[in-house]
Amino acid sequence: MSTPKATDFGGRALDFVMGIVEAPINGFERLMGRKRMPYLFLAPNLILFGIFTFLPIAIAVGYAFTGGTGLFVSERPFVGLDNFRQLLQCEDYLRPGSCRESLFWTAIWNTLWFVGFNVAATLLVALVTALILNRAMAARGFFRAMFFYPVLLSPVVIGLIWKWFLDRNGLLNAFLQMLGVPPEIFLLDVGWSRFFVVVVSVWFHMGFYTLILLAGLQAIPKDLYEAAAIDAASPRRTLFRITLPLLGPNLLVVLILLMIRSVQIFDEAWVLTNGGGPGTANSFIVQYIYQMAFGSDLRLFGLASAASVLMGLVLLALTLIQLRLGRKMES
Amino acid sequence: MGNLKLTNVTKAFGALTVLHGIDLTIDDGKFVVFVGPSGCGKSTLLRIIAGLEDISAGGIEIGGRDVVQLSPAERKIAMVFQSYALYPHMSVRKNLAFGLENLKFKRSEIETRIAEAARMLALEPYLDRKPRQLSGGQRQRVAIGRSIVRNPDIFLFDEPLSNLDAALRVQTRAEITRLHRQLGTTMIYVTHDQVEAMTMADEIVVLNGGRIEQVGTPLELFDNPRNLFVAGFLGSPRMNILKGKVTALGLAGVTIDAGYGAPLTASIDPAAAKVGQAVLVGIRPAHFAIGNEGLPFVVQYHESLGTETYVYGTLEGRGEQIIVHQTGHFAPRPGDLLRIMPLPGRVHVFDPESGLALPQSVSQRSDAHEHA
């Protein structure tokens, strides 16, 4: 009869802990008043968030208005909006070469391009995968785990695996040679490298989004499909008139999360393309920020911070849209 | 034509057989209720008729057509689900139109049918609302409306009132019955509620353990239950059961001694019984008369419902639990000793081993038919 013993032990342990903490908690409650007590319990997390999240954000915002290459605030002169002017000064925004910070605008256009293709591809692949995994099929649990597994890997590992796969002497070329197709240096070709950055990103992240969509699909009552079957709905009409509209809230969450995640593309693409190559074909906005601040001893922390602030505003806007649409859909 | 014929319908989930060779014929225009306890297979049988479940063996004909290989949409049936299964993102109008659009009806025809169903079910004010903006009763009516617009040969109802409160249930019950009279279409209705079964059905099919126990009109089943299960399942409170022994055979029936010094007379065909045969005697609570002679009944407590009273107690001595029904006000005290006597012709007799009812005498059978 181990369970009652364990319960007794658990109960005694809880009593022991409560005996220790009760007196100080009562003391704090008398000191602060009952209404303020919740803040006491929130304080440890707030302090950690403050140090590791809010403080860096505040520092970055502050640095965006400073110049020079010094690391400490005291070493950095206030330059007002100069960094933002430098980033946004452009004759024609569609031609990065005409901009003062051409690399910034190249990164922006590359990122926009990537966001468009990556969001569309990941959403489509995750949706199709979720629809397939939602059906009664053999080894469904195995396939669900298999599609989710890449999410657990480190982005650097992902980048290295695919680099090994796509290299001149990689697995893909070996396979193509077996078929008599001449080898291709995928990562040195602008088109192929951009294509594979999207492929790798889709492969890496789709498991997570598939999971969200699968949860949404499973929340759709089965009897709606039965009613649709009696209502003579074809599979296509059932998909477009029943499944997708009811999956709307989940699709919206996935869409916004995907956009946010895509704007932040960096690590796996950096490793895969040897720092954004060929040339600047895969140089994205986060990479630009990283290079300005820490790459090649540039130490342009002000410029990097200004770019971070601009990117942060875009992400904030996306998050607000998600929250607003989410609430609207819930109501 | 909305007649239905089930031939040896069998359904198994793996090694578990839930329907054992169901044979049933339902005539066009009938209101048939499948009733039985949870897990008896009534909903599975309904879903099989709808085409939502495959059968393991047997045949299904609707209007003389073999429909076993046909999809639900091709069977000319409509179904009202327990959860209503309304499309939550569509307005009432779109819910009603969806099936017709799938069948490529003309817009004008769709509008006409929606208007007709909405008028019939008083749904006109709600046509542009979403299901979540409707009450339970209104949703139920939309679900019925969705079935009506398709003009099916057979309506199938899967416990459609179970999510409604008691008052609304009574009201919707009456509405469905009215609708059946108005449309004249075959309706098959699944419920575990015997009151729904008794009040709505032209015919009741009592199911138990995946088998049909008895088919008949509500009063046929109430008056002449084929076996102990049907006797116990239909009627509320349930039938009282006493142990007894046949002591004499007469021309009009048999005499049974239940051990309380008051012999009971049952209108049983004497040819079907033997003197000394052990039997179970069934008497409904409403079929006892309280008087100066009869079984000794010790009152434990009573429930007064205003127009009627249920008295709960035991028979003195062996202590068998008995319920007695009295109309009007009646307030015996706990411990009171009453004498109760079954009404003539209202004693059911069952074989304790097979559970089957012993056949009634010819005169009783003809009485029962006249009564029905």
Count of individual helical segments of chain B: 9
The separation of the N and C termini of chain A measures 50 Å
Helix content of chain A: over 70%
User: How is the quaternary structure best described?
Assistant: heterodimer
Note the run of SSEs of chain B as H and E.
EEEHEEEHHHEHEHEEHHEEEEEEEEEEH
Kindly report how far apart the N and C termini of chain B lie: 27 Å
Average pLDDT score of chain A: 91
Q: How would you characterize the largest beta sheet of chain A?
A: none
Average pLDDT confidence of chain B is 92
Biggest sheet strand order of chain B reads: 6-7-8-3-9-10
Biggest interface and residues each: A-B, 18 and 23 residues
Low-confidence stretches of chain B: 368-372
Number of DSSP helical runs of chain A: 14
* Quantity of strands of chain B, as a count: 20
Task: Give the helix/strand layout.
The complex is a heterodimer of chains A (331) and B (372).
Chain A: H1 2-32, H2 37-63, H3 82-88, H4 102-133, H5 140-148, H6 155-166, H7 171-178, H8 190-218, H9 222-230, H10 235-246, H11 248-263, H12 267-272, H13 285-294, H14 301-330
Helix pairs in contact in A: 2-14, 3-14, 4-8, 4-11, 4-13, 5-8, 8-11, 11-14, 13-14
Chain B: E1 4-13, E2 16-26, E3 31-35, H1 42-50, E4 57-62, E5 65-66, E6 77-80, H2 92-102, H3 107-120, H4 136-148, E7 154-158, H5 166-183, E8 186-191, H6 194-200, E9 203-208, E10 211-216, H7 218-223, H8 228-233, E11 240-249, E12 254-257, E13 264-266, E14 278-283, E15 288-291, E16 295-304, E17 308-315, E18 321-327, E19 337-342, E20 348-350, H9 362-371
Parallel strand pairs in B: 3-8, 3-9, 6-7, 7-8
Antiparallel strand pairs in B: 1-2, 1-4, 4-5, 9-10, 11-12, 11-14, 12-13, 14-20, 15-19, 16-17, 16-19, 17-18
Helix pairs in contact in B: 2-3, 2-4, 3-4
Structural summary, described in words:
The complex is a heterodimer of chains A (331) and B (372). Chain A is mainly α and 331 residues long. Chain A has helices at 2-32, 37-63, 82-88, 102-133, 140-148, 155-166, 171-178, 190-218, 222-230, 235-246, 248-263, 267-272, 285-294, 301-330. In chain A, helix 2 crosses helix 14 (301-330) and helix 4 (102-133) crosses helix 13 (285-294). The two termini of chain A are 50 Å apart. Chain B has helices at 42-50, 92-102, 107-120, 136-148, 166-183, 194-200, 218-223, 228-233, 362-371; strands spanning 4-13, 16-26, 31-35, 57-62, 65-66, 77-80, 154-158, 186-191, 203-208, 211-216, 240-249, 254-257, 264-266, 278-283, 288-291, 295-304, 308-315, 321-327, 337-342, 348-350. In chain B, strands 6-7-8-3-9-10 form a 6-stranded mixed beta sheet, with helices on both faces. A 5-stranded antiparallel beta sheet of chain B has the order 13-12-11-14-20. In chain B, strand 12 (254-257) and strand 13 (264-266) form a beta hairpin. In chain B, helix 2 (92-102) crosses helix 3 (107-120), helix 2 runs parallel beside helix 4 and helix 3 packs across helix 4. The radius of gyration of chain B is 24 Å and the shape is elongated. Residues 368-372 of chain B have low confidence and may be disordered. Classes of the chains: A mainly alpha (331), B alpha+beta (372). Chains A and B meet through helix 9 and helix 10 of A and strand 6 and helix 2 of B.
